[in-house]
């Protein structure tokens, strides 16, 4: 079944909220007693998530989303589950069959998030 434009907008809106929350978690983790490699990774991912959030917001504007409503998000307070939730939201957004421009952006961001998740797991195991 083909998803509607409204469903694509709804899922991208939820993705923006999840990415924003994940960004906040990684920003706060840079201020903790993590080892240097983990702090450096958290700082880089925080910046990347900020970029992704901006791109997603811009795409919502391009899709002519009427108004940006914040949807309640199941928030995770731990980094790994937050990354996993973000990856799941990317998959859900891609499943709506968004327009080509949005699909390309979501695919690129999802791949970068998958790589970041793998790097995070490797750093966590090493710590």
Features:
mainly alpha, Ferritin, 127 residues, 4 helices, 75% helix
Could you please describe the fold and organization of this structure?
There is one protein chain. The chain is an all-alpha fold and 127 residues long. It has a single domain, classed as Ferritin, core subunit, four-helix bundle (Ferritin). It is 75% helix and 0% strand. The protein is elongated and about 45 Å long.
Write the layout of secondary structure elements.
Blueprint: H1 5-29, H2 36-62, H3 79-94, H4 100-126
Helix pairs in contact: 1-2, 1-3, 2-4, 3-4
Question: Can you tell me the CATH superfamily?
Answer: Ferritin, core subunit, four-helix bundle
Overall mean pLDDT score?
85
CATH fold label: Ferritin
Question: How many domains, in number, for the residues?
Answer: 1
Structural class estimated from helices and strands: mainly alpha
Distance from N terminus to C terminus (CA atoms, Å) equals: 45 Å
Low-confidence stretches: none
Estimated helix fraction: over 70%
Q: What is the makeup of the main sheet? A: none
> At the first level of CATH, what is the class?
Mainly Alpha
* Structure summary, number of beta strands: 0
Count the DSSP helices. Answer: 4
Helix and strand element order: HHHH
């Amino acid at each position: 079944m083909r998803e509607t434009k409204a469903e694509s907008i709804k899922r991208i809106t939820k993705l923006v909220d999840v990415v924003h929350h994940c960004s906040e978690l990684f920003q706060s983790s840079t201020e903790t007693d993590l080892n240097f490699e983990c702090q450096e990774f958290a700082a880089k991912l925080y910046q990347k998530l900020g970029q992704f959030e901006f791109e997603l917001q811009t795409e919502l504007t391009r899709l002519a989303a009427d108004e940006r409503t914040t949807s309640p998000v199941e928030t995770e307070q731990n980094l790994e589950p937050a990354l996993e939730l973000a990856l799941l939201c990317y998959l859900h957004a891609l499943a709506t069959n968004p327009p080509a421009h949005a699909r390309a952006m979501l695919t690129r961001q999802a791949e970068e998030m998958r790589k970041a998740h793998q790097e995070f797991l490797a750093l966590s195991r090493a710590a």
